[in-house]
Design a protein that fits this description.
20 helices, six-stranded antiparallel sheet, binds 5'-O-[(L-methionyl)-sulphamoyl]adenosine, alpha/beta, seven-stranded parallel sheet
């Protein structure tokens, strides 16, 4: 049954003191994926992200850059928006804490708090004096024992904390200990993963301290109406974005629908660095102000690079802009969500990126789509064949449930199991054999229809992670490119007789960069074996060479020839046709390693039988120490391209 609750999802709003890094991209991509998955389930969803622009640290950074603060914020906020656009992140609102809508909302929330009473009847906000160590980068007071000595350094930023003494407004968090614990234990506020929930409960058990919600020394912020030379604490200001963006200020329709409703799911994605603010401060502030608190928070893990914390000083930052520039949005989104267990720390390596790209995207998914569509082009004139029995079982519910649990890798593993099943089904059923036999027309129709439906369902289920690739598959299937909904998940939606779109390559393989150091490479004219003069072969005329038709082909299936150590039977795709070729390369390549490879075929060779099996062409390979090394390409070429 469809869940009728509205679904509100937010990322943290990011500081504009620097351009976005991959950690920001990770959270935002996860949020975009989750929103799309919820919509695929039929949920009415709202996805919010934005930028956190007030506070001492940003004021200081702008000053250091010599740019007026607002202009500086505008510039960096634009960089965030551009990155989200490039990554196909589709938010419903981008909130900036310098927006007027936000400022009005913050002031309304503050107004409610100033008048609010705690559960014990005392005022929720009171004036007090704060004296303590303040880290401007965390925008947070630190306990003495949290600092690193010598130098009173913030343990996170390794920069000196500043001794600060001032008269502030305080929020009486200590009065909400019991309420917070009850919210979490009862599950009204669900915090995942469990370890993080326990961490929050542990913090409550140690006793909560009141915190100050105004700052005397900071200028760049929202002035406190009761004391205009103070500004509201940047964390209070920032947390409020989750409701101000929905027009809390005017009790707007979005606020009523996605936040202030008994049937609203209010969900925050956060990093472990900001747990305390989101799981303690924020719910308590809202409870005091009479606004419904969030009901779900998920704490994501940390990305490291080759085992080290991402940091500009060690030079191991991962630039998300550069990644999208090079690979496009889908592989970046896919890798971040497939490689990690969401909620756990994990390590980013370039090798893993290229490995996943080539094996999962170029080989598994890319080949499935190109094989399926090529066969329909070839055997059914590019039209959807008649429907037959439904053979393929692709259960979408468990996959959607994995998305819902933020188990992105789990969802993708299940989709890829279906990709593999379909690829194997193609090999096992050898549709190219059916195509030769007029008695098998119906069987081939049924097989191809079911295969196309399998591809369609797979594209729907990868859509949350790779919306662009999914859209391209829809187009190739002749379907309009639109956001899918639950009605699309039923089998059999392709209309028999409808024309398919043009086939385009989905994920061209990434070839490994040449790594042979200059000094090891033989000089261009050096003989292969030192001391042996190069053989002078009989030369042929260009006209002789022109008789040989060489073409690029993709291996779509490979299996060892029974009874032979050397021979392997390949099905290759030459763009306009598929063929069977027998090659003597079994001792050098495992059949599964051949699938997806782009090879060179002698296409106009007379068919021959090898060990009783027909071979229709020949694969080119070098022979080195009796090992075959296949000729391949160092950039992507379409199957069928002429080689000359
Ligand atoms: N402005 C505050 C949040 C206010 S929300 C009301 C802030 N901003 S931030 O720019 O520092 O972004 C923090 C978030 O970025 C983290 O909570 C996390 O989601 C993400 N990440 C930052 N670095 C990260 C990694 N190295 N790895 C994974 N995610 C990390 O805090």
């Amino acid at each position: 049954m469809t869940d009728r609750r509205t679904f509100f999802l937010s990322t943290p709003i990011y500081y504009v003191n620097d351009v976005p890094h991959v950690g920001h991209a990770y959270t935002t991509i996860a949020a975009d994926t989750l929103t799309r998955a919820r919509r695929l389930q039929g949920r009415d969803a709202f996805f919010l992200t934005g930028t956190d622009e007030h506070g001492q640290n940003i004021e200081r950074t702008a000053r250091e850059k010599g740019v007026p603060t607002q202009q500086y914020c505008d510039e960096i906020a634009a960089v965030f928006r551009r990155l989200w656009e490039r990554l196909d992140v589709r938010y419903d609102r981008f909130i900036r804490t310098t927006d007027d809508l936000h400022v009005r909302g913050v002031l309304k929330l503050w107004g409610r708090l100033i008048e609010a009473k705690c559960p014990d009847g005392r005022a929720a906000i009171y004036k007090g004096t704060y004296a303590g160590w303040y880290c401007p980068r965390c925008e947070e007071f630190k306990d003495e024992d949290e600092l690193k000595q010598p130098g009173n350094l913030c343990a996170i930023h390794e920069r000196p904390a500043e001794w600060t003494e001032e008269q502030n407004f305080f929020f009486r968090l200590s009065a909400y200990e019991g309420w917070l614990k009850e919210e979490i234990v009862s599950g009204r506020l669900r915090i995942d993963p469990d370890a993080r929930r326990n961490e929050v409960l542990g913090i409550i058990d140690q006793g909560l301290k009141d915190f100050s919600v105004s700052r005397a020394r900071v200028k760049w912020g929202i002035p406190v109406p009761q004391q205009p030379d103070h500004v509201l604490y940047v964390w209070f200001d920032a947390l409020a974005n989750y409701v101000t963006a929905l027009d809390y200020a005017a009790d707007g329709a979005l606020y009523k629908k996605y936040w202030d409703s008994a049937t609203a799911e209010r969900f925050h994605l956060i990093g472990k660095d900001i747990l305390r603010f989101h799981c303690l401060y924020w719910p308590a502030l809202l409870q005091a102000a009479g606004v419904p608190p969030p009901n779900r928070e998920f704490v994501q893990g940390w990305i490291t690079k080759e085992g080290r914390k991402l940091s500009k000083t060690t030079g191991n930052v991962i630039d998300p802009e550069a990644l999208v520039e090079r690979y496009g949005p889908d592989p970046v989104r896919y890798f971040l969500l497939r490689e990690s267990t969401y909620g756990q720390d994990w390590d980013f390596t370039d090798a893993a990126f290229v490995g996943r790209y080539n094996s999962d995207l170029a080989n598994d998914l890319g080949n499935l789509v190109s094989r399926a569509l090529t066969m329909v082009q070839r055997y059914r004139d590019g039209k959807v064949p008649p429907r037959g029995a439904h053979i393929v079982t692709l259960e979408s519910d468990p996959i959607l449930a994995s998305y819902e649990a933020l188990d992105f890798a789990g969802a993708l593993i299940q989709v890829w199991a279906a990709v593999t099943r379909l690829n194997q089904r193609i090999v096992a059923n050898a549709p190219w054999e059916m195509a030769k036999d007029p008695h098998q027309t119906t069987r081939l129709d049924t097989f191809l229809y079911d295969l196309l439906e399998g591809v369609r369902l797979i594209s729907l289920l990868v859509h949350p992670v790779m919306p662009r690739a999914a859209g391209r598959i829809f187009r190739m299937l002749g379907l309009p490119e639109r956001d899918p909904g639950p009605e699309d998940l039923a089998w059999g939606r392709l209309e028999p007789g409808a024309p398919l779109g043009a086939i385009e390559p989905l994920f061209p393989r990434i070839e490994k960069e040449k790594t042979v150091p200059e000094s090891d490479a033989p000089p261009p004219s050096a003989p292969a074996t030192p001391g042996t003069p190069p053989p002078v072969p009989d030369r042929i005329d260009i006209a002789d060479f022109a008789k040989i038709e060489l073409r690029a082909a993709v291996v779509i299936a490979a299996e060892k020839l029974a009874g032979s150590k050397k021979l392997v039977k390949l099905q290759v795709d030459l763009g306009h046709e598929q063929r069977q070729v027998v090659a003597g390369i079994a001792e050098s390549y495992a059949p599964e390693a051949l699938v997806g490879k782009k090879v060179v075929i002698v296409a106009n060779l007379k068919p021959a039988k090898l060990m009783g099996v027909e071979s229709n062409g020949m694969v080119l390979a070098a022979s080195v120490d009796n090992k075959a090394v296949l000729c391949t390409f160092d950039a992507d070429v379409p199957p069928g391209a002429k080689v000359k």
